Amino acid sequence: MVVPDTAPRVIDRTRVPVHIGCVMDGNGRWASQRGLPRTDGHAAGEVALVDAVDGALALGVKWLTLYAFSTENWRRPVDEVRFLMNFNRSLLRRRRDELNDKGVRIVFSGRRDWRVPRGVLRQMDEAMELTAHNSTMVMNMAFNYGGRAEITDAVRAIVASGVSAAKVDDKLIAQHLYHPDMPDPDLVVRTSGEHRTSNFLLWEAAYAEYVFPEVLWPDFRKEDLWAAIIEYQQRQRRYGGLS
Ligand code: FPP
Q: Which of 30, 98, 223, 236 has the greatest number of C-beta atoms within 10 Å?
C-alpha cells in the first residue's frame, strides 16, 4: 500500500529527520474538556497515532518512536493502567495488518517485566513477527519504557559481561541499549504544550531537537507532524561544535 505524499513543498526532502520520537501527551485533558473519562482520550489518540505514522511514511522517515506507556505510568489509577494495557493490546491487533501493508516494522522498547500482562506480551510478539520483514519504516512502541531503566539495563548487561571499567565508553553503552541499530532521534515532538522529557529516550536524545506543539494528542494529525519537521529544519544543529 502506498501512502500518498501530500506533504508541503516547503519541506526539504533531503533533510527529513531519520528518527522522530513522539510523546503522545494531552489525552486526559482532551477528554476532560469534553466531560469524558480520561480513558476516552487515550482511545481517541489512536487516530492521531495512525495519522502520525502516515505523515512519517509520506516523507520517508525511517524510525518513529511513540511513547505509549512509561515505567512511571504504573503509578496512575489502577483502572487507567488496566485500560492502557488492554488498549495497547487491542490497538496492536486492530492495526497490525494495515501497518504491515504499509511496510512498517513494529518493534518495542521497554522492560518485559512481570507487570506486563501475558496477553499484551503475546500481541507484541505477534506484531513483531508479522512485520519483521518490513523495511519502509520502523514503528518503535516505547512500552513500559523509561530512559533511566534503559540505561540501568545496559549497565547491568555490561557489568554482567565482565568487561573492565576502562573499556566502558559511550559506544559500548549504546551497543547495550534496547535497539543498538536504532539511530538517535533527530526530532522529539511532545504535544499539549508540556515542556518535559519525562524519561523519554534520555541517552539517545542527547542532541535531538525538541518541538512542543500546543495541540492535544487526540487532535494531532500528519499536518502537525509536518509543521514540527518544518520547525526542525529551521534549527541549526551544532552537536557541541560551531556551525
Ligand atoms: C509522558 O508523560 C507521556 C507518556 C508516557 C505517554 C503516555 C501515553 C499514553 C498513556 C497514551 C497512549 C496512547 C496511545 C494512542 C497508544 P507522563 O504522564 O508519563 O509524564 P509526566 O508526569 O512528566 O507528564
A: 30
Read out DSSP for 86-103?
A: HHHHHHHHHHHHHHHHTT
Take atom 12 of ligand 1 and give the residue whose Cα is closest: 68
Specify whether 51 is catalytic.
no
Domain with 143, as residue range(s), is: 16-233
**How many structural domains is the chain composed of?**
1
Identify whether the C-beta of residue 174 lies closer than 8 Å to the C-beta of residue 206: no
**pLDDT score, position 3:** 54
From 65, 76, 79, 84, mutation site for ligand 1 pocket: most ligand atoms within 8 A of C-beta: 84
In a domain, 4, yes or no: no
Give residue 179 CA to ligand 1 midpoint distance, Å.
Answer: 21
User: What's the pLDDT tens digit per position in 173-227?
Assistant: 999 999 999 999 999 999 999 999 999 999 999 999 999 999 999 999 999 999 9
Residue with CA nearest ligand 1 atom 22: 198
Judged against a pLDDT cut of 60, whether residue 4 lies above it is answered with no
DSSP string, 171-204: HHHHHTSS-TTPPPPSEEEE-TT----TTSSTTG
The residue whose CA has the least distance to atom 9 of ligand 1 is 68
Give the length of the chain: 243
Residue 25 is a catalytic residue: yes
In a domain, 201, yes or no: yes
Can you give the CATH number for the domain in which 221 is found? 3.40.1180.10
Mean pLDDT, range 80-97, rounded to an integer: 98
